[in-house]
């Protein structure tokens, strides 16, 4: 039993890393001493299965209290420049991935507008005092719109019909518009990252901490629905337009319409699967990010970091 | 500050962890492990606070001026373990009283409605 006791002590001390540094520094030795005293008491009492009966509540206590400490976060320090830059880079990388997925999955502009409006409204209603994202969407929405509409304006074969605006990729083909759209999108993504980064600048000077968001579950649920709508709307639009499900997805420019037609139902089914998974995944990731990655300064003003 | 003070009433109800720590310290200064043992005894084993929960609660109670660190009481058997002793502040004592009164009112209401009859 002795080696188990020693191992348990070592393991518990190692697991203290789950707590924030400040908490570990102030209370780590006391936590370890508490655990060891409990061990000694249980072993002396001769109870059965002391290992299991002590570790089970210990693990629950450790995980729950570590989570509470991290969310409650007594991080009264300011954000470091390194962390801030890393966050902007991560944000740009995230949006870049989302942007590429958008183009690969051929999502129409209307979903971006609806999504943007929905997220802005949700932020206003649920997150209330978190104003930065709403401000951020003010920049992001026109950029998104521009990235879709400008190529239409410059591409000779493009039409300004409602169908072309809703599903621009259906009318576009060729290298020039694709490069134009991608270039504009990359520009908008970089700009979004920079705008977002600048919105967080006060955190470099003011104390801040992680903060849980009320109504978080609802936000995740709505984000999943929004993510699915992002993905499924083109299918519905196309179905309504063509009356058939075999061309459920418009051709993307990367894949020719002929190939799409030839692959028929297999292609449709595969895309449907990818679209649903990507949509739901997008929702979960977005929702979870909004839930956890929220910062608050000493004056109660909040920022969403995602 | 009386237990009926509006400033105290705003802090109610207390979380079970805060209430139990305050109650454990009401009979004198204690270190963390002794607080846990006292809570366990007070609740007849129904509430066992783990080290993370206990010290997390203590950490939040200190800046709220509910408890304070103190020297080890005279006669305390000190071993080589790291120990920190805590005691109630006046504010903590008043808040404990206010919460106890609130709970007493609830129990009285439950009695009046005969909720406790036959409950053992």
- Helicity of chain B, as a percent range: 40-55%
Instruction: Measure the end-to-end span of chain B.
Output: 37 Å
CATH class membership of chain B: Mainly Alpha
How is the biggest beta sheet of chain B arranged?
3 strands, antiparallel
CATH arch. level architecture of chain B: Orthogonal Bundle
- Total number of domains of chain A: 2
**Largest inter-chain interface?**
A-B, 25 and 17 residues
Radius of gyration of chain B: 16 Å
Q: Radius of gyration of chain A, Cα only, in angstroms?
A: 26 Å
Shape of chain B: globular
| Number of DSSP strand runs of chain B | 3
Features:
heterodimer, A: 306 residues, mainly alpha, 2 domains, three-stranded antiparallel beta sheet, 11 helices, 3 strands, 3% strand, B: 120 residues, Arc Repressor Mutant, subunit A, 5 helices, globular
Describe this structure in words.
The complex is a heterodimer of chains A (306) and B (120). Chain A has 306 residues and is mainly alpha-helical. Chain A folds into two domains: 2-72; 81-304, no CATH class. Chain A has helices at residues 2-15, 21-45, 50-72, 81-104, 109-127, 132-154, 162-166, 168-171, 175-199, 216-242, 257-292; strands at 208-210, 294-297, 302-304. Chain A has a three-stranded antiparallel sheet with strand order 1-2-3. In chain A, β2 (294-297) and β3 (302-304) form a beta hairpin. In chain A, α5 packs antiparallel against α10 (216-242). Chain A is elongated. The model of chain A is unreliable at 105-117, 119-141, 154-170, 245-255, 289-294 and 301-306 (pLDDT under 50). Chain B is mostly helical. Helices cover 49% and strands 8% of the residues of chain B. Chain B contains five helices and three strands; from the N terminus they run ααβααββα. Chain B has helices spanning 6-9, 16-25, 32-42, 51-61, 90-112, and strands at 30-31, 67-70, 85-88. Chain B has a three-stranded antiparallel sheet with strand order 1-3-2. Chain B is globular. The model of chain B has no long low-confidence stretch (mean pLDDT 88). The A-B interface holds A 19, 23, 26-27, 29-31, 33-38, 57-58, 60-62, 64-66, 68-69, 72, 74 and B 32-33, 36, 48, 50-56, 59-60, 81-84.
């Amino acid at each position: 039993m002795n080696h188990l006791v020693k191992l348990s002590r070592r393991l518990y001390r190692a697991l203290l890393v789950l707590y924030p540094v400040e908490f570990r520094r102030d209370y780590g030795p006391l936590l370890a001493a508490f655990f060891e005293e409990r061990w000694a008491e249980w072993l002396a009492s001769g109870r059965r299965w002391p290992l299991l009966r002590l570790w089970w509540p210990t693990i629950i206590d450790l995980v729950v209290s570590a989570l509470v400490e991290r969310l409650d976060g007594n991080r009264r320090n300011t954000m470091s420049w390194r962390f801030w830059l890393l966050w902007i880079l991560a944000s740009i990388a995230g949006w870049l991935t989302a942007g590429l997925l958008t183009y690969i999955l051929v999502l129409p502009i209307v979903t971006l507008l609806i999504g943007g409006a929905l997220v802005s409204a949700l932020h206003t209603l649920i997150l209330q005092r978190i104003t930065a994202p709403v401000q951020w969407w003010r920049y992001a929405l026109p950029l998104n719109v521009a990235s879709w509409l400008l190529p239409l304006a410059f591409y000779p074969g493009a039409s300004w019909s409602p169908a072309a605006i809703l599903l621009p990729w259906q009318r576009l083909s060729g290298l020039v518009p694709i490069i134009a759209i991608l270039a504009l999108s990359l520009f908008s993504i970089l700009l979004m990252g920079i705008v977002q980064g600048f919105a967080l600048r006060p955190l470099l000077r003011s104390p801040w901490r992680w903060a849980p968001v009320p109504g978080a579950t609802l936000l995740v649920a709505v984000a999943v629905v929004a993510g699915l709508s992002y993905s499924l709307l083109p299918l519905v639009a196309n179905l309504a337009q063509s009356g058939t499900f075999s061309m459920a997805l418009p051709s993307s420019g990367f894949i020719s319409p002929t190939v799409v037609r030839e692959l028929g139902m297999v292609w449709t089914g595969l895309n449907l699967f990818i679209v649903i998974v990507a949509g739901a995944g997008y929702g979960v990731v977005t929702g979870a990010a909004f839930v956890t990655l929220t910062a608050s300064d000493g004056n109660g003003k909040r920022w969403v970091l995602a | 500050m009386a237990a009926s003070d509006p400033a105290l009433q705003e802090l109610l109800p207390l979380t079970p962890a805060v209430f139990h720590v305050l109650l454990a310290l009401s009979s004198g200064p204690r270190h963390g492990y002794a607080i846990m043992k006292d809570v366990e005894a007070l609740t007849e084993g129904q509430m066992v606070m783990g080290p993370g929960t206990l010290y997390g609660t203590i950490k939040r109670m200190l800046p709220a001026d509910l408890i304070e660190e103190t020297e080890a009481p005279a006669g305390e058997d000190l071993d080589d373990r790291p120990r920190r002793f805590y005691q109630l502040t006046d504010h903590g004592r008043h808040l404990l009283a206010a919460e106890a009164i609130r709970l007493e009112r609830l129990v009285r209401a439950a009695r009046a409605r005969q909720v406790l009859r036959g409950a053992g």
